[in-house]
Structure formats: structure tokens, C-alpha cells
Amino acid sequence: MNKDTLLDVIKTRKDGILQNELWKVVGIDSPKCSRLVKRLLKKNLITREKVIAKGSRTFLIQSVEEGMFGGIEEKTLGYPSIGADTLLDVIKTRKDGILQNELWKVVGIDSPKCSRLVKRLLKKNLITREKVIAKGSRTFLIRSVEEGMLETAKKESLIYLIANGHFSPCTGCRLECEPEYCKHLTDWIDDLLAEEIKNKKLEVCL
């Protein structure tokens, strides 16, 4: 029994096969099955998801078919010089986003490298990352940030810097003071609250 034979067996199961059943089906012991599964994972020939079946924790093993990943061709897998820009291009092809635990398999890199590239894109505000639970596993939903969305985010970030036409008194302030006792800051916060109340009243009228 080798990894190619194991892969052939996995391919016969359209909905996948549980790892704690796989080694029994092919007639090998569990440790050897685990080793062969890891080799197939490294070559991106299968996917492995944590699941609970019949009260026991195990893995659901599925073969990776051509075109399985929404139009990303198999030739992109294992691309040696993939960087943040390439990763972003892949993310942009998914209008509804892509799960991080799928993303690294799609582009053919390991999970730690994918996490590092994702963090770089997050720092540049080029993507968003949201905690989700998919098929019983905790992961992140990654989405690209369109240019318009980025401009809106920048504008919204300025809302609480200006009140009544004036910047926060803390902007550029070099005085050593306690914020809770600063009259300038207190007056500015009062103006900010007054603006919010006024805006809410306008929204109700409209």
C-alpha cells in the first residue's frame, strides 16, 4: 500500500471518507495511514477537515479535483515565489470571500506562510478577516477590500476627530494633563455629542 493507492480509494468517495474508517478500508494500521495522508496533504492532493462522527473526533478526507477551488487552475498550486500580491489576486476572485483554511491549499503554500501573508494584507487594509465556523471548524473568512470601501473606511475614521468644525484638542497637544479634568477636551466632547444628537434627529425627520 502506497500513497497513490490510498488516493485512488479516496477518489472513489465523492463525499469524502473518515480517516478512522480509511485505514480499515484499505487494510493498513492507523499510524501508516496517517503518514500516507500527510504525504498527500503536502502535495495538495487531498483536503482534511476536523469533524465529529459518532461521538468521536476524526478527520474527513476528500480528494482535490481539478477546478474544485472556484476556477483556480491546478497549475497555480505549489507556486514557489507566491507573495502577498499573488495571494490578494486569488482572494479577489472570490466575490463572497474565501476561508483561510482553504486559501493556503488553493495557492499551494503551508498554513503558517499563508497566515503571515494575510497579516501583511490586513496591515495594508487590503482585506478583511472575520471569525467564522465552517463545517464544525473555527477559521477566518477572508474578503478583499474594494477601493471604494477603503475610501469610505478612511472617511469614517475621521468622524471622531472633528466636532463643530474643530479637531480634537488632543491633536498635537503637548501639555501634560489628566484627560478627565481637561476643560478643552470636555467642551469638545460636548460638541461631539451635540452633533450626534442633531444628526440622529435629522435621520428621523428624513
UniProtKB/TrEMBL annotation:
It comes from the Archaea. GO terms for biological process: response to stress. One of its GO terms (molecular function) is DNA-binding transcription factor activity. Gene3D superfamilies: Winged helix-like DNA-binding domain superfamily/Winged helix DNA-binding domain. Residues 5-58, 87-140 form the B-block binding subunit of TFIIIC domain. InterPro entries: MarR/SlyA-like (IPR039422), TFIIIC_Bblock-bd (IPR007309), WH-like_DNA-bd_sf (IPR036388), WH_DNA-bd_sf (IPR036390). This is B-block binding subunit of TFIIIC domain-containing protein.
